[in-house]
Recover the amino acids of this structure.
């Protein structure tokens, strides 16, 4: 056991923080999807907002520890290695999607719930609970993370590493659209003008 292995352990702990937070967020989204009243939705919306604070910790942890693992000169990888560069690009993508798109959509969902008021959720609040800005980001981010885990363990060339991330993203996004499609169809008639 040497410093490299301690840092690798920190790298994995950071990953577990991210996966843990991502799993709780997924549970929150599933409960928001099922919610039919403000009272059912609010606790899960609040928890989703709180758990989001763990993602920067995971991203910074992965990046900092990954940088050490990359630049330590016992091993053949360096900052120019394809799967390392794809790992860095993936972290930027996770940050932009999570901290930008999902964060902003989450605030809009909060505003829609507030505007809805107590009692049954109207179409606008339900539509925001099914918004791709939450669901596609959550599932595609998870897909990208699983792809990067593949890259970090299998260490493919640059093309293989990019392909893995693209596949992870596409499978995640497709799953998100599948999971939200049925409730969205359910909503469609009530969105049409009456008469
Ligand atoms: C989503 C982001 C990331 C995930 C999910 C991830 C995951 C992992 C995993 C699971 C391992 C253990 C592989 C093994 O021991 O076989 C690992 C190792 C490693 N990671 Fe990452 N990582 C990420 C980001 C990064 C970044 C940004 C860098 C570089 C700046 C990096 C550099 C490394 C290096 C050099 C190793 C050591 C490989 C080895 O000793 O076999 N990682 N990573």
């Amino acid at each position: 056991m040497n410093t490299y292995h301690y840092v690798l352990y920190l790298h994995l702990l950071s990953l577990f923080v991210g996966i843990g937070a991502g799993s709780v967020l997924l549970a929150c989204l599933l409960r928001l999807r099922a919610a039919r009243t403000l009272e059912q939705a609010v606790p899960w919306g609040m928890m989703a907002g709180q758990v989001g604070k763990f993602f920067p910790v995971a991203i910074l942890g992965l990046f900092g520890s990954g940088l050490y693992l990359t630049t330590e000169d016992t091993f053949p990888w360096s900052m120019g290695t394809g799967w390392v560069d794809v790992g860095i690009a993936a972290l930027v993508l996770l940050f932009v999607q999570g901290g930008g798109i999902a964060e902003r959509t989450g605030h809009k969902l909060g505003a829609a719930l507030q505007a809805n008021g107590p009692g049954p959720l109207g179409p606008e609040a339900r539509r925001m609970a099914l918004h791709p800005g939450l669901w596609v980001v959550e599932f595609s981010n998870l897909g990208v993370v699983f792809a990067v885990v593949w890259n970090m363990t299998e260490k493919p060339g640059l093309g293989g590493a990019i392909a893995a991330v693209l596949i992870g993203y596409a499978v995640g996004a497709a799953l998100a659209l599948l999971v939200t499609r049925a409730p969205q169809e359910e909503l469609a008639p009530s969105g049409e003008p009456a008469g």
